[in-house]
Amino acid sequence: MESLASIVALLWPGAQVAVFVLALVTAIELLLPRDKHSLASRIPALIFWTIWSLIATLIYAALSAFRARLGIAPLIVLPSAISWTGALALVATPLIAALVSDFFFYWCHRAQHRWLWRYHAVHHSIRELNSANSFHHFTEPMIQSLLIALPVSLILSESAATAPLVVLLLHLQSAYIHSSARLHLGPLRRLLVDNRFHRIHHSLEPRHFDRNFGAITPLWDRLFGTACFPARGEWPATGIAGIDQPRTLREWIDLPWRYGHAPLPEPAPLAEGSRSPA
After folding, report:
1. Nearest to residue 227, comparing CAs of 214, 211, 215?
2. What is the mean pLDDT of the chain?
């Protein structure tokens, strides 16, 4: 019983955040729909997410324990490192943490497209893309823990008071950029990724392949030449040609082995008009 209570205590905070974020963004999708997605179509995704979250929580807990055992302290602790900002630390902390995390996410994401595509293809196979239907393969937490969480934890750490806020904001952003809501950021897309910008990354159109890897800011995509800003009203179909999204637990687990390693084609040259935000 003590072991069960320990597991519940470990999972409960993350479960609360996930449920709150999913309920909020789904409500926005239903109030401001861009596409018509049935609620029934989201049920398999909720099952996949539940299993994925269990695996992710255990992996990140093990990573945290491993790092603590090694006694490696991060180079920067937020917000103590920016205490000179006073109350602005509440804003500066999540921004700095998001920028650093997104830098490693960007390169992890590019590595997945180049060398780990068969596993990442589960995420890209989704045709009814929305906040719930944005699931990943169960191997994703292992990849992200090594390529994102570990290097980020060695560079910076948030104080106990601000860490929950950072986690909440990152969850909200992840759900929002995959949402099918008529809610975008307009010109602010130059600074923050919105659902229209990220939709290009999931597009079925070859000219959009290997574009828009960032999840928080388009800064890294602009800096490394992979940005493709959507034209006004552009909302491409998503998925992978010839591959249906997983609809059962078995399909979710074995899609990488059924699909095999099939790299995306080389990116097509961007049209001149797509280089500037609409």
Report:
1. 211
2. 84
